Amino acid sequence: MKKSLVVLLCLVHLASCAESYNVEIYRVFGPEHPGQYKHPASITQLTNGDLYMAYYGGSGEYGDDTAVYGSRLKVGETQWTEPKVIANTPDRGEGNSVVWQAPDGRVWLFYVNRYGETWSSARVKGKISNDGAQTWSDSFMLNFEEGTMVRGQPIVLNNGDYLLPMYYETGEDHEMTASTTCSYFMRYNPKTKVWTETNRIKSPMGNLQAQVVQLTDSYLIAYIRRGGDFLPTDHGYMLRSESRDGGHTWTDAVETKFFNPNSAVDFIKLQNGHLLLVYNDNMNARTPLTVIVSTDDDKTYPHRRDIAGGDNSFAYPYAIQTRDGKIHIIYTTNSRTTIMHTVFDEFAIIGSPPEL
């Protein structure tokens, strides 16, 4: 009897370990859903445990018919709700959207609104929801500067402020950004309800879409998409910047050893303090989509796994860790018509099974 119990416990443990190594991949929305073009998508976990996703879609990247859509995955369910328009400016195209729930329960929606032919004419607008993304406020203008855009999720700083990644895109070419394109952050004080800007992060080819984590009260680091064009290169590397004063000021961006084909990356701090970076491990193509993990505060990244690959593109990864410890990454594929959802434990990357 005791031997049978031991065997049963071992089998349960083995099943748990096997599950911890799984990378589950789901197709969320394709071209058959509203907004055939779907590129950047964002995701957040709400207070009640639901997941909420936002993306912008329409006839194409520069279509004036684009709008921001929202969808919900309720706790215990496997099917996302039918996408509904949550932001739409008449006669103007929308762009990248970021949905994020703050610690006080308020849900923020930041999104790009395009005024001209390219993103260098864009501004960033916002909405808020106080009922778990069921309804949304009127829109407000977050930043009036021409060329302002948003892509990545905010973080809550140790002092309670919010830090929202922003970038300033310049150039009138659809296939490249000018060298003056740069990243920065907007900082929000939830007590005074005031937004302020940091300095601009500069680099020789330009940079955009910084993703940030905080390591100590004073020390923050950001990994950043390189700027430039999409032509073949043997010098396409991700960039990095850091702050030593709590996120108020930032260094110029420097090259890292990580490849970057001029594509978005994401970078988050896990609940155990480990750092997770997801990016396209390629200088010239948005494949594969690779996850790496640092367990020593950004010194080394020995743990890695490709979560998507092959003859396709896997772009604009957006990562969160839910309260149950699961890591969720969404990205787009199939010529920017399909949103995918990947779920896994950190053990699937670092290869260390949970203890019994």
Please characterize this protein's 3D structure.
- By secondary structure, the chain is mainly beta.
- The chain is built from two helices and 25 strands.
- The chain has helices at 2-20, 347-350; strands at 23-29, 37-45, 51-58, 67-73, 84-87, 93-101, 107-114, 122-129, 140-143, 148-150, 155-156, 162-168, 182-189, 194-197, 207-214, 220-226, 237-243, 254-259, 266-269, 275-280, 289-294, 303-308, 315-321, 327-333, 338-344.
- The chain has a single domain (2-350), classed as Neuraminidase.
- It starts with a helix and ends in a 6-residue tail after the last helix.
- Strands 10, 11, 12, 13 and 14 form a five-stranded antiparallel β-sheet that branches. A four-stranded antiparallel β-sheet has the order 1-25-24-23, with no helix packed on it.
Question: Short summary of the structure?
Answer:
The chain has 356 residues and is mainly beta. It is 6% helix and 45% strand.
